[in-house]
């Protein structure tokens, strides 16, 4: 047996660096292993630091006092800035930081204002930033106008970076849409925009449109003869409208004053808790959407949806490129049955003029959250909860709605959803007595879906989510 002798004093590397890079890349989510790799050699350090510093999260910290110096220990933000300064230009870790998540605290733990100078210095040092995430740690708002001027200028400078393609604003409060426009128009290279719990104190759009008209700052289609102050709208690839986002912001995105072009969006996520017509307008304007995710929030009321005219409801036929659809149904406080709404949504994927024309939908994923009262929901409720699923099964499988046709075995072979190859139905079960209810729920659930089962594309699962 051959014995391999290793010389611990030798610093010579006998394998190509690319092999070590692949190994280090495999450890991208193992912080302890990456720290150990960074101490091996200079070549390993650079590869490890790319993963160690890729995503940085700065939030409120527990303030401690150094015993010997009798002064507060430096904040995480201050330590990071010191690390960047001490690493030098040749070995700086600043270029490795691609994602920065800033979390504001509450009460005595707020730190944006206290650390504004250091935080501004950090933002100016990050030249390769690709994603910026600003949000509070709890249910509060970060008032943009109250931020120190130096910090606001640094944040706006980061938004102007050519490398910044993703921005998330969570819990940020603005005075009016003029301030919203002033911030977002700087994101010229943005491709992903996420907002949630946004607050706009003055939701009027008239003043913004008139102000832009007076300043001759308008948006137009690509035209080399554009006048001064005119530029193209920034095309978005991904748009996420999170919970508690005012519908006025949706109207802002669709207004001529919006700095973004939503018709280029390929992935749209929307949490529905307000006005259905505004969200329907947004969906119909996003004509390039391929991936759509809709969430019915727990406070939504479906009763008003049925009183709307057809042009103010969701119409999947106006999204011709849609391939993947996901619908999250929260535990509805209004006790509305969401299945008729879900069936109405799927029915719009059928072209009324050409009912046999195939759409491009390939997968549908439904996540249904259900609250099971203690000790456990009885079997009769399990039977009734999905008694309208048969109508959805007919739509998705292409079966004829005629009972006589069913008796004669006459069905549509494909139907409009002929490209559909996967339907997932996941139940998220909440029960106050704890866990272990999913298996029994699956045994007692009555789900009549012969069409999808015949095609073997339906998958049903249940999960315990109780703590």
Would you write up a description of this structure?
InterPro entries: LRR_dom_sf (IPR032675). There is one protein chain. With 467 residues, this protein is α/β, with parallel strands linked by helices. 30% of the residues lie in helices and 21% in strands. The protein contains 16 helices and 21 strands. The strands form five sheets. The protein has a twelve-stranded parallel sheet. It has a three-stranded parallel sheet with strand order 6-8-10.
* Strand arrangement, major sheet: 1-4-5-7-9-14-16-17-18-19-20-21
* Spatial extent as radius of gyration: 27 Å
Mean pLDDT: 82
| Uncertain stretches | 1-6, 221-229, 401-405
N- to C-terminal distance = 56 Å
Helix content: 25-40%
Quickly count the helices.
Answer: 16
Q: How would you classify the quaternary structure? A: single chain
Protein name: F-box domain-containing protein
Organism: Psilocybe cubensis
InterPro entries: LRR_dom_sf (IPR032675)
